[in-house]
Specification:
About 65% of the residues lie in helices and about 0% in strands. By secondary structure, the protein is mainly alpha-helical. α14 (about 290-300) runs parallel beside α16.
């Protein structure tokens, strides 16, 4: 069985109702009517609950990554928003957004972003689709009910309508938002590009992109151009693609260089990515964003030249110091130090890697960053060094149960240290006894060391804590089948497949479930599963 599959969880949502204030009472009433319609269109009925994704058990781990972004958890609201709005790829923002939502539960912008994220995850087929749709609608409603002098909830609502193929209604809402919140027109413009593409009005979408390219805010310009780069194949073919490729020559700027490189990245053309960014740095030496993009490309996306990446971030293209920023190091973000840490790992220098990783964590002391850094250690097979870093990280981010669970997973998977792993899971459970994934991970540890009785108890606790945890139900079915409890195993397996139908194929070939093969009900459960 797979050891320690990361879970995504948020606390139950209280029903917070705040009267929304628009310029006209009539508009407010019409928006509430449209909100109700949108919830019906998306089939959402659950408006409170616990956020957990159903994930494949045993052999599949949910990984949400976007190669064009620095996934370090130190992004501002605007950076997170732009990454969600301007990319068709799934963004590694789930835990980060949920944490910020919990810390700012009365701020409508965080449920607004979560609503966008859940719809994106559903579009990409990640997790429990019905749950994701319910969650997106619930977050949109919560943001809408909180919105007073901003457009977040209304934009989330329009996004729901467009997802439900109600593109013209969504575009109508955007026009009203522009009239009511003129300072936020750029945000509505970005949504308008997406909705126009979805409605098949591609030429209008591209025209809107070219208008936004003159916006004073660099992030807005980049988001608009990135939309063109990521949506052109699906909607416009060679028209927008030509724009993206020729931008650095026809409209030379650091922005057009970055977007062209991102376009080549979506195509998997890493040589063109590096060539485009290097040419941009020749023309725009000193642009830190270009340096960051290339350093990230040279390490995380296609690790080929860590020395050059180190030079880019440490000296070669760092802007000169000013009175406001007396040292070049102050200009560096947490993500820059993380990239440097990984570059030093590529050079097999664990001491310098840890030094830079700790600097990244000092700027951004979040569990999400720790998880990403540990992924770097594991990818380069520096597990022992990763555990040493994790011990220090736990001191910097105390009280986080997921970090203790991660330590348990490292001991279990890499070092085969049963006692250390078990104790780490116990620490995680003592910090968060309601987290089902901790019990599921503990059960996997017992399974690995053939203590099936304790494994079965742990999986049973996980299913009791979270009745939507397909992972735990599947693992419980496997252990019960191995113990000869076939009827109970079949019931648990049926529940797991109801929650996550993609487990059907896994069950059809899983040796742990061999004792169930003689049961007609098992054949019915697994019939239609693809052959291997």
């Amino acid at each position: 069985m797979d050891n320690f599959i990361k879970k995504i969880k948020s606390e139950s949502l209280a029903g917070i109702t705040i009267t929304s204030q628009f310029q006209t009472h009539r508009f407010l009433i019409s928006m509430k009517v449209i909100l109700f319609t949108a919830l019906l269109l998306t089939g959402s009925s659950s408006l409170a609950g616990t956020n957990t994704f159903s994930e494949s058990a045993k052999t599949q781990e949910l990984t949400l990554k976007n190669a064009n972004l620095s996934l370090t958890g130190d992004r501002t609201f605007e950076e997170l928003e732009f990454s969600l709005l301007s990319s068709t790829a799934i963004v590694d923002s789930d835990n980060e957004l949920i944490r910020k939502f919990q810390l700012n539960s009365s701020d409508p912008k965080w449920p607004y972003l979560l609503s966008i994220l859940y719809l994106k995850l559903k579009t990409q087929g990640q997790g429990d689709n019905n749950y994701l749709l319910d969650s997106a609608a619930r977050m949109a409603r919560q943001s809408f009910e909180m919105s007073r002098g901003d457009s977040y909830g209304y934009l989330a609502l329009a996004n729901l309508l467009s997802f439900g193929k109600q593109h013209e209604k969504a575009l109508t809402i955007l026009e009203k938002i522009k009239g009511t919140f003129p300072k936020e027109n750029w945000r509505a413009d970005l949504f308008e590009i997406k909705f126009l593409f979805a409605a098949g009005r591609s030429k209008e979408a591209v025209a809107r992109i070219h208008l936004i390219m003159s916006h004073e805010n660099r992030s807005v310009r980049l988001a608009a151009m990135n939309l063109c780069a990521t949506l052109c194949d699906e909607n416009l073919g060679s028209i927008a693609e030509k724009d993206v490729i020729v931008w650095p020559k026809s409209s030379p700027s650091p922005d057009t260089t970055i977007v062209s490189a991102r376009y080549f990245s979506t195509k998997g053309q890493t040589d063109k990515v590096r060539k485009t960014l290097k040419e941009g740095l020749k023309n725009f030496r000193g642009d830190i964003q270009l340096a960051r993009e290339l350093a990230f490309e040279l390490t995380l996306n296609s690790p080929t030249n860590p020395d050059y990446a180190i030079k880019l971030l440490e000296s070669g293209h760092t802007p000169p110091a000013t009175a406001a920023t007396p040292s070049s190091e102050l200009l560096m973000r947490s993500s820059d130090f993380k990239t440097l840490g990984y570059a030093w790992l590529l050079k097999k220098n664990a001491l310098l890697a840890e030094s830079h990783f700790l600097k990244a964590l000092a700027l951004n002391p979040t569990p999400e960053l720790v998880l990403n850094i540990i992924d770097d250690y594991r990818s380069e097979k520096f597990t022992s060094a990763g555990l040493l870093f994790l011990e220090k990280a736990i001191e910097i981010c105390p009280g986080n149960s997921s970090l203790h669970a991660l330590k348990g997973a490292l001991y279990s998977e890499e070092l085969k240290g049963f006692s250390m792993s078990e104790n780490s899971y116990f620490d995680a459970i003592s910090l968060n006894p309601r987290e089902s994934s901790h019990f599921n991970s503990l059960g996997l540890l017992y399974y690995k060391f053939n203590n099936l009785d304790k494994a079965m108890t742990s999986f049973a606790v996980a299913t009791a804590l979270n009745p939507r945890d397909a992972n735990a139900f599947y693992n419980l079915a496997c252990v019960e089948a191995l113990k000869g409890k076939n009827e109970k195993a079949l019931a648990a397996l049926k529940k797991a497949i109801e929650l996550a139908p993609n487990l059907q194929a896994l069950a059809s070939t899983d040796r742990d479930l061999t004792s169930l093969h003689v049961m007609p009900e098992f054949s019915e459960l697994t019939s239609g599963a693809p052959s291997h």
